Amino acid sequence: MWRPRIVHDRRPVDTARAQRAAADLLGALGLSLDDAGLRDTPRRMAQAWAELLAAPELELTTFPNDDGYDELVVVEDIPVRSVCEHHMLPFVGVAHVGYLPGSRIAGLSKLTRVVDHFARRAQTQERLTTQVAAELERRLDARGVGVVVEAEHTCMSLRGARAAGTRTVTSTLTGALHDDPAQRAEFLALVRGRGVRP
Ligand code: ZN
Q1: What's the pLDDT score for residue 192?
Q2: Centre of ligand 1 from the C-alpha of residue 159, in Å
Q3: Annotated catalytic residue 123
Q4: 3-state SS track over the chain
Q5: pLDDT of residue 9
Q6: Counting Cβ atoms within 10 Å, is residue 112 exposed (0-12), middle (13-18) or buried (19+)?
Q7: Cβ(120)–Cβ(48) under 8 Å?
Q8: Which residues have a beta carbon within 5 Å of ligand 1, which is an ion?
Q9: Å from CA of 163 to ligand 1 middle
Q10: Which one of the listed residues 87, 126, 178, 186 is annotated catalytic?
Q11: How many alpha carbons lie under 13 Å from residue 191 in its C-beta half-sphere?
């Protein structure tokens, strides 16, 4: 399977520099920081972006699949909050993540952590989808992994095409969820058309 680029070592945030740069950007865009409401905005901007880009460490505890559970495990509507790397504007939606257990199983809450880990960074939705699938396949030794992400990109809905309400759907299916038509159909029937929560 294709291995996506995985960035682990982002340099630490230089808060003072980020604040200066935010002030510069606002000034260059014609806003006046003498305005009472904007005076503290560079600090808040720097903090907000730092938070959006702070991917939490990934601790994916797995357990041996002692009971031999071999049916599909699906967690739906996992919140996705990310930033598109082309415009540095947020994209927001949900992920549906499923796997066919092999030798290991994971705590269900861990699947949401995997999504958050790969979402909280400058990202593309396509790469987010493949990274989550690759990580689960690798860590769980799963017989198949399915990841569907549905998100609204504010770079599309607020500017440019101003296509409010459009959502972008991406999916990655691996192993038996890719190759076995019955398994594939079962997974897609479970997650199809659930829609993005506002
Ligand atoms: Zn964008």
Answers
A1: 76
A2: 10
A3: no
A4: CCCCCCCCCCCCCCHHHHHHHHHHHHHHCCCCCCCHHHCCHHHHHHHHHHHHCCCCCCCCCEEECCCCCCCCEEEEEEEEEEEECCCCEEEEEEEEEEEECCCEEECHHHHHHHHHHHHCCEECHHHHHHHHHHHHHHHHCCCEEEEEEEEEEHHHHCCCCCCCCCCEEEEEECHHHHHCHHHHHHHHHHHCCCCCCC
A5: 60
A6: middle
A7: no
A8: 84, 86-87, 155
A9: 13
A10: 87
A11: 28
pLDDT for 193 equals: 57
| Structure tokens belonging to residue 56 | 């939490």
Q: Which of 19, 123, 125, 131 is catalytic?
A: 125
Is residue 152 part of the annotated active site? The answer reads: no
pLDDT at 12: 85
Domains belonging to the chain, first-starting first, are 15-52 (no CATH), 62-192 (3.30.1130.10)
pTM here is 0.87
| pLDDT tens digits along 62-71 | 899 998 888 9
Tokens standing for residue 2:
């294709």
**Helices 108-119/125-140 angle, 10° precision:** 140
Structure tokens at 176: 């038996």
> Which segments in the chain show pLDDT lower than 70?
1-9, 193-198
Verify whether residue 84 is a known catalytic residue.
yes
